[in-house]
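Check this.
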Amino acid sequence: MADQYTFQDPVKQYPKPDDSWKQEQPGAGLEGRMHPTPDAGEKTYRGTGRLEGRKAVVTGADSGIGRAVAIAFAREGADVVLSYLPEEEDDAKQVVQLVSQAGRKAVACPGDLKDEEYCERLIRTAVDELGGLDLLANVAGKQQNQESIADITTGQFDETYRTNVYSMFWLCKAAAAVMPPGSAIINTTSIQAYEPSPILVDYASTKAAINGFTKGLAGQLAPKGIRVNAIAPGPIWTPLQQAGGQPEEALSSFGTQTPLGRPGQPVELAPAYVFLASAESSYVIGETLAVTGGMPTP
């Protein structure tokens, strides 16, 4: 497999799933236990200075898309505060090292995004440790499959909304109060906002809410020079899928419903986040950028 800069057939660029992908992990899941290991650009992403001197907070920064975003931001020149759950420390240590190797400051800040005080502390940490904040990437999410609405407990529904929607609200609210003109907020929605799976009713509905929130907030903050946008990933190979996001038996065909016939890798999302973070996208506001392997969105 060549890196993502080499001219090649995107159908064959990354692997397609098979029975070896079937694996269940407890809790939030760890990237270090996955087979195959997702590609977050650890060995391949090349920065070009597009975020030189920027100060970022990235949630879910230990693994998956958040890991790829943190690596890309650092290699593009940004210092990064990394948010992740305490039980994800082993994965997070690797990202801290990669950010530091890029010559940027990495600030580890473990905690639970369902806690409003922790979300506020994340923003304060950026201001205190980085000298300010001008970039927020809300990537972390909770996804648990259930065959029937009867199986979705109030506790699961509440945790999904607090992780995916409430934390975004708390972080955006705190960030908007300290961000200077030129800053960017990037939220993470999903193909599930447009093509909700029957087994992901609560998760899909949070992603639709994120779309609406993003567009409304974009209009509110644009006059202040703060751009708000979102990215809608398709099926991406991350620990989320093995930690209850999909039924184990579905993992051997995960992502094959896309026109490319394969799931995406986290590194394939990184350039989209960098684009929306950089001044190159200065006239892009309230946009939901789809990275779905060809699955159509409105």
